């Protein structure tokens, strides 16, 4: 038996699946991969949008923290201003009541004139510095009357 040395060339189709039909399993697998790829792309888009929203959320959270700190500082300053004004006003009220008392007004009269309670009038009178008239009244000798 003699063998011939002839080379037979068989053409190979390089186009994918051009002439050979794909099996149902291959088509199913390709379809599944395409569906998964689409879902993954949608998930990536959703996560990117979520990241953008979370960045904005945390940026606003920081702004809220800054606003809370600014409010607390403003409240502290306002309370300090109020306390200073209150002390000044009460001191002036006390001085006015002291002057009225030095002119002979009694506590009952001062309560009727001001609408304050007798406790409030006494408190203000105690915090008022003595006026020159108060000092003179306190140091003047008591008037004595002699009956003849």
Commentary on this structure:
The protein has 4 helices and no strands. It is rod-shaped, with a radius of gyration of 50 Å. The chain is mainly α. The chain has one domain (27-133). 71% of the residues lie in helices and 0% in strands.
As an assembly, this protein is single chain
Strand content: under 5%
The average pLDDT value, as a whole number, equals 86
Question: Uncertain spans, ≥5 residues at pLDDT below 50?
Answer: 143-148
Report on the biggest sheet: none
Protein structure class? mainly alpha
Number of strands: 0
Approximately how much helix is present in the residues? over 70%
Radius of gyration, in Å, reads 50 Å
Query: Helix-strand pattern, N to C?
Result: HHHH
Total of helices: 4
How many domain regions?
A: 1
Measure the end-to-end span: 182 Å
Which descriptor suits the 3D outline? rod-shaped
Topology:
Elements: H1 24-102, H2 107-114, H3 118-127, H4 132-139
Briefly, what is this?
With about 150 residues, the protein is mainly alpha-helical.
Properties at a glance:
mainly alpha, 0% strand, disordered C terminus
